[in-house]
Amino acid sequence: MWVFGYGSLIWDPGFPVAERRIARLTGWHRSFCMRSIHHRGTEDAPGLVLALDRATSATCDGVAFRVAPGHESATLAALRERELVSSAYLETRLEVLADADRLDCLAYVIDPDHVQYCGGLALEEQAQIIARATGGRGPNRDYLWNTAAHLAELGIADPDLEWLAARVRDLTA
């Protein structure tokens, strides 16, 4: 069983991992397009979390994780509890490319018809929201900074996340 991580799964998979591989997904991009009312915000003051948002010519570089053998059922249950808390994500299977290998991965993508979907927000508006929001798993800015730092450690460039991380640091200094 393979799982594609593009956000917090990169730095906190929450399941036993047998193998990690840098992977590319085409037709989707990483985006702060989901209002978070649980983990990184509240219903009264939503934060933003990353989701895979469909875009024909886009690509998203992330990490494909192979679940440790024998832990597939428990991993699936844990991921569903974590990712499907508000049904804004859709559980799907997507093919990613890792080196020359095509891997069939479990992935969580945004439902663009869900009330929490907010694609197309300007980067400055995203930064203002992320700088202020806090939810059950802590400040929204920590989620952004952890993701940006881990992408950089892996050599994965994401100019929007890099800009957001710097801007949120300025806003919260």
From TrEMBL:
Enzyme type, top EC level: lyase
Q: Name one Pfam family in it.
A: ChaC
User: What's the Enzyme Commission number for this chain?
Assistant: 4.3.2.7
Coiled-coil ranges per UniProt: none
* Superkingdom classification of source: Bacteria
Record has Lyase as a keyword: yes
Q: Which InterPro entries match?
A: ChaC, GGCT-like, GGCT-like_sf
**Name this polypeptide is given:** glutathione-specific gamma-glutamylcyclotransferase
Write down the species: Gemmobacter denitrificans
Record lineage: Bacteria, Pseudomonadati, Pseudomonadota, Alphaproteobacteria, Rhodobacterales
